[in-house]
Amino acid sequence: MLSELLTEEKIRFSADRLSWREAVTQVAEPLLTAGDITTGYVDAMIASIEAGGTYIDLGFGIALAHTRPEKGAVRTSISMLRLEEPAPLLDQPEHAVDLYFCFAAVDATAHTQAMSSLARILSDTETREALRAARSAADVHRLITAFEEKK
Question: Which pTM value belongs to this model?
């Protein structure tokens, strides 16, 4: 369940104007702090995006920063960063993102389960917009938990 991975400690908000690199670094910070990823994982995500990684743009102003497990994933985990002002990937306006997620998985099974849960939530227009409107980590966690309980 996504609510077990995306805990309140891993949900952040920022009113600062950030570059996409800063956004990726900030969204990864809770996972670094928890020991879920290494600094090498963050470096690998940034390098992947620099190499043309707008593939992390899921649409709807949402990006899912991630890289291969062997680049420094310690535990399966996810974090979220909500920006007041979008930080476009590769500074391209068509990839404006204001809702960043950072995802780390240690194996294919964990990857599939967590991604499936996140995809269901982000595919639901009402829940997606409620995430964007949330003003606290507790609000986000309640939304995700409520969504999981009704499905």
Answer: 0.94
